[in-house]
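[Discussion] Sanity-checking designs against the backbone

I'm trying to build intuition for which residues belong where. Below is a structure token string of 474 positions. I'd appreciate it if someone posts a full sequence so I can compare it with mine line by line.
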């Protein structure tokens, strides 16, 4: 369970990180270990010039001499190659025994998870692809659940939102010692997620191996990562959880709920592997006598990804699903739309609509239940035929009646919806680049158009709670 790092290498890397002029904007040693772990298992070549950008802040470390610089950079590359070699040999494992952690060791785990997540964020198209239909159904669910566990450990507020309203018997089935009346529930929730971390990491590694085999189309998986021996660092990228900040200033800042985590001596019950993704949001859930669909709605082409995860009763019609998506994404329902499912289009009939044709089916006549297998693993929702905002709706899992809500519930999501009439996804992405450069000649006009309050990275628990109140009234 130990990482492929020697005591000498740890000492050199710790000194290397300490050279940063801005420690608050630089990885800690544990964050770096999680980061290199994530880089190593990612089934794609990530050049050092890209991944080294994330380690330090805007100001790079100042070395005392060329010899020192060569020693420290050389050590970093040695460790990177050791992680890569261990990943190819299937000997890279989570470097913590969660069940034997002592109180003073929790911070190291949270830091490791943060670094790991930053590494995954470098390749969102791999780790959260728009279409996972080529994967085995069970693995798809487990990958989604594993990513949710990582999210919950990084952002305690998201963790709490996931567990609110979750029936106690579900938790007791997975973790025999769970007490729904525990006064310190946030700490208990984090303990459950921590106990799930080893299996979550293993499932992500399994997914990476399978993805790598498919990507290489028969080529030996040993060629998936190429060791590099030298590189130059660049600018530091923002925290993926809250745009522009590192762990200490954002998701990873100290949280009192992390200080009181305890495990029983027996550890989790034998079924305690993964909490499989059924994590309701802030709205209270009332059981509905029928299955529900857990859907992930992703705005196609958005980078970083803009998405929402929603739990929807199976009796929901496509017309109602349209209203739910509008509310959850943040659109204003000011334009036409349609669903595309297995080559057929579904919309509201309108004889005066030049976009409407007789080959479209009436979306009011079809529910998620009646469409059933036709939904496959994903389908499309298009809004605004001019800007053409295309959303991929992934069916992550079918939730049994005992856990189904009486109305749609927004579980979580990431990043703000584009403003209406902003020109489509390509134009929106270009606008984000302009907004990131205050010196750009079009910055003032673009900021005026988007509004002073627009923040692309913003989507928090208050937004989720507000949307869930709206969903309850639909």
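Best answer:
Here's mine. Compare freely.
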């Amino acid at each position: 369970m130990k990482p492929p790092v020697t005591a000498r290498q740890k000492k050199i890397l710790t000194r290397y990180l300490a050279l940063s002029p801005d420690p608050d904007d630089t990885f800690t040693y544990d964050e770096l270990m999680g980061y290199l772990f994530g880089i190593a298992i990612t089934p794609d070549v990530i050049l050092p010039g890209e991944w080294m950008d994330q380690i330090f802040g805007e100001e790079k470390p100042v070395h005392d001499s060329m010899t020192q610089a060569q020693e420290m950079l050389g050590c970093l590359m040695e460790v990177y190659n050791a992680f890569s070699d261990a990943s190819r040999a299937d000997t890279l494992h989570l470097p913590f025994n969660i069940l034997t952690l002592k109180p003073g060791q929790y911070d190291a785990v949270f830091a490791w998870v943060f670094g790991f997540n930053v590494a995954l964020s470098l390749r969102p198209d791999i780790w959260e692809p728009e279409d996972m239909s080529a994967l085995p159904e069970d693995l798809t669910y487990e990958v989604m659940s594993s990513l949710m566990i990582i999210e919950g450990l990084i952002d305690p507020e998201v963790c709490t939102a996931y567990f609110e309203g979750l029936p106690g018997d579900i938790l007791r089935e997975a973790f025999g010692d769970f007490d729904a009346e525990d006064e310190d529930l946030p700490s208990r929730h984090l303990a459950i997620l921590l106990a799930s971390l080893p299996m979550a990491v293993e499932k992500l590694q399994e997914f990476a191996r399978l993805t790598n085999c498919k990507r290489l189309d028969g080529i030996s998986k040993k060629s998936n990562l190429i060791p590099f021996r030298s590189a130059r660092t660049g600018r530091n990228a923002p925290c993926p959880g809250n745009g522009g900040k590192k762990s200490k200033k954002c998701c990873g800042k100290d949280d009192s709920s992390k200080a009181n985590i305890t495990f029983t001596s027996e550890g989790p019950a034998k079924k305690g592997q993964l909490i499989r993704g059924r994590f309701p949001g802030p709205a209270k859930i009332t059981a509905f006598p029928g299955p529900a669909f857990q859907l992930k709605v992703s705005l196609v082409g958005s980078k970083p990804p803009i998405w929402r995860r929603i739990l929807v009763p199976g009796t929901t019609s496509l017309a109602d699903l349209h209203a739910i998506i509008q509310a959850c994404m943040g659109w204003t329902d000011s334009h036409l739309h349609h669903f595309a499912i297995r080559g057929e289009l579904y919309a509201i009939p309108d004889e005066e609509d030049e976009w409407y044709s007789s080959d479209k089916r009436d979306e009011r006549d079809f529910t998620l239940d009646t469409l059933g297998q036709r939904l496959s693993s994903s389908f499309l929702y298009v809004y605004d035929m001019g800007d053409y905002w295309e959303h991929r709706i992934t069916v992550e899992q079918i939730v049994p009646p005992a856990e189904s809500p009486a109305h749609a519930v927004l579980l979580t999501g990431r990043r703000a919806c584009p403003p209406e009439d902003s020109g489509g996804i390509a134009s929106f992405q270009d606008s984000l680049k302009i907004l990131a450069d205050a010196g750009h000649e079009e910055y003032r006009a673009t900021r005026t158009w988007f509004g002073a309050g627009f923040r692309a990275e913003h989507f928090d628990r208050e937004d989720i709670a507000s949307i869930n109140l709206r969903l309850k009234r639909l």
